Amino acid sequence: MSMERAGLVIWDVDGTLIPADADDDGIDESHQQLDEVVTEEDSEPARDQPAYPGAADTLKILDAHGLVQTVLTESPRSAAEIKLRAAGLDRHIDFDIGAFGSDARDRFDLPAVVATRFESKYGKPLSPAHTVVIGDAPHHIAYARQARFGVIVVAHRTPREELAQHSPDAIVDALYPNVVAALVESLTSTWP
C-alpha cells in the first residue's frame, strides 16, 4: 500500500471493538497483574469480552481501502493483543505503532507515541489530517482533539446526547461497516 495516500485509524479497544469488562472503566492501576491474568487463559477475554457486532467487518473494510489501523489503549500491549486475538480482531491491527498504558501514565501523551512509532516504521510524519480516532467515550474525543485528529465515537456505553456535548466529528450507534468506512473516508479524504 502507498503510504503517501494511506490514512490511519486509531482504535480504542475496550468499549469500542470489544465489550468492556466492568474493571476496565478507569485507568488500570495494575497493568502487570492484568497482563498476567489475561496471559493465563486466552479464552477468558473471548468469553467475557466478545467483539461488538460489525467490528470484524469494519476492520476488514478499512483495511481493504488501504488504511493503516492501530490501537490506543490504557491496557498493556500484551493484554490488548490477547483480547483482540481472542475476539478475532487482531488481523488488521498494526500493534507496532500502537500506544499502550505501559507507554505513558497520561492518556493525553499516547497520541504522540503513535505519531513517533508511525514515523519510525513508515518513514514519514503522521498527518493529523489523515488520522481518525474511533472510540466510545468523551476522553477519546478530548485526546483526539488535542492531537488534531478526526474522531468518531460509538454510542455503545455512553449515551449519544452526552457524546454530542463533546463535539466529535461523528457519532454512530453501532459499528456498521459501510457507515464507519464512509465517515473515515470523509474525514481523511485519502482513498483513491
Quick summary of this structure?
By secondary structure, the chain is α/β, with parallel strands linked by helices. It has a single domain, classed as Rossmann fold (3-Layer(aba) Sandwich), CATH 3.40.50.1000. The protein has 8 helices and 5 strands; from the N terminus they run E-H-H-H-E-H-H-E-H-E-H-E-H.
Structural class: alpha/beta
Cα(first) to Cα(last) distance is 11 Å
Extended strand count: 5
Q: For the CA atoms, what is the radius of gyration?
A: 15 Å
Characterise this structure.
By secondary structure, this protein is of the alpha/beta class. The chain has a single domain (8-188), classed as 3-Layer(aba) Sandwich (Rossmann fold). The chain is 40% helix and 11% strand. The chain has helices at residues 31-40, 43-48, 55-64, 77-86, 110-122, 138-147, 160-164, 177-188, and strands spanning 8-11, 68-71, 131-135, 150-154, 170-172. A 5-stranded parallel β-sheet has the order 2-1-3-4-5, sandwiched between helices. Helix 3 (55-64) packs across helix 8 (177-188). The longest helix has 13 residues, at 110-122. It is globular and about 35 Å long. It starts with 7 loop residues before the first strand and ends with a helix. Mean pLDDT is 86; it is low at 24-43.
